Amino acid sequence: MISGAASLLRRWSAAALRGPGAYLLVGLHATIGTLLVYSSPRSAISFLILLSSLGTALAVKANAAFKLVVILLLALVVMPVLGMRNIFYLEILFQISVFAALALGLNIVVGFAGLLDLGYVAFYAVGAYLWAFFGSRQYYYLHTEAGTQTGTAPFLLPADTFYIFVFLGIIVAAITGILLGLPVLRLRGDYLAIVTLGFGEVIRVLANNLDRPLNFTNGPHGITPIQRPTIPHFFVDAFNGTFGGLVGKQVRDVDLYNVFFYLFALVVIAVIILVTRRLDDSKMGRAWTAIREDETAAIAMGIPLVRMKLAAFAAGASFAGAMGILFASNRTFVSPESFSFLQSIGVLTMVILGGVGSIPGVILGAAVVVILNLQVLQGLSLYLAALRQSEALIPILNFPWKSVPNQFDPAKYQRLVFGIILVLMMIFRPAGLIPAARRQRELAKDEGY
Fold first, then answer.
1. pTM for this model (two decimals)
2. Where in the sequence is the domain holding 176, given as residue range(s)?
3. CA distance 123 to 106
4. What are the pLDDT digits (tens) for 59-112?
5. What CA–CA distance (Å, rounded) separates 146 from 273?
6. Do 339 and 202 belong to one domain?
7. Which of 36, 109, 320, 433 is deepest in the core (most CB within 10 A)?
8. Peptide bond just before 395 cis, omega within 30 deg
């Protein structure tokens, strides 16, 4: 009886994911999610339902044009409007975009070329500090003590040079990737991981200590304020004229920065996906695959090992450099604490969780990790904090919530949760949530299928 019900459920699922049922499912999912968030802007569950509709649109077997229209409507219309009703949602989407770009970059190094990099966040820091120095007043404080700035100096460059520095960040981070790759060309496996880990720590320590003899980074105090690019007035007027009624209020310039950075991050993500897909299907991508599988065989086949490894480091680093520029401008503040070793481990977790070598997989991995961190764990912690301030009792135990210590807040166990998830993934789904086809075939061969 149970097997019959399971078989019936599978047939219904298959029917819902193809044909007319697929179009109806996508439309209903997106509409219900939008209405739920619009009516309850602070509901985390409603937002998760809406966000999952993007996955439904990608999963169904429907016309590609239809799927593209739905995704564009959700990303470019629905999300900005709902984000103006609750700016925290735009913050979540921005962080998903940033970490998806970082995960795509690391996926080139780890997934395509098979080079385990534990210091990837260093390239992110290079981009962030590049704009932090030239987009702030820090140049005029080179001869002052860290933390003693008065804030009366002018900015070194106009705010709109931010757009030029996005490309400069790509170039500088790529050069940094090449400089990292040069001394580690003969290393592999654990030795390569240790060296890259050390490189990431070197960059963080430099950012922490380059406040003397010349104050380049302002040390542990960080650099602030960092300029944001100006938003054209026609963009503000167009947004208010088109979506002002849906938002329910006139949106100010300062609020639209959240929409601007979200849309800018989407553009960067689209470019990165396009470049990554082209690289994966290119001669260079096949060379990276050969190096990952067997370096000795790759050399015997005439693959230039040195050039290909350096290209992998440079390509992966360039994505992180661009996002570092965007991060610094969005936050208007950078400090060494933002680029710790745990950040590198977090990005690597996203790659492993989504699927090593899988482009959609690492994006999904980034979304899952960010949502768990910002939405689920923090939401549960806030809910428990509210219960501790009430006179409510724990059911059955009749124990007062206010006596439960803060040490039980879920947000404090973020790394533990991610560790458990990784262990379970390695046991039950080692190829990731959306495995790369090549990786899936390798695991099936190893298991004898």
1. 0.89
2. 89-352
3. 11
4. 777 778 888 888 889 988 888 888 888 888 888 999 999 999 999 999 999 988
5. 40
6. yes
7. 320
8. no
